[in-house]
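For the sake of transparency, this paper describes our internal protein records without simplification. The record that follows is passed on verbatim for readers who wish to inspect the format:
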Amino acid sequence: MCGENSPSEQASSPLPALGTLLVDVVRERVGEFRGEWCGQWALRPLGGGTEWTADPAEVQVASPEQRIRAKTAYANARSRGEVL
């Protein structure tokens, strides 16, 4: 169980679409939205990797510049053979 909070007491903001690039402002990381569990949002690095959870209040939609940076970093890592 997720705890004492009922679904109506949890954040009322709509969930982003799966795969939406979001910025975890606390960790200063860009990640893909993977889902929600117990009021926390699950994010994972672009292209895969270990997921982490973030409070929805500390997450924002990535700006076009942030999306380009994340996608470029992933493409560069892939070209170096660091990721598949």
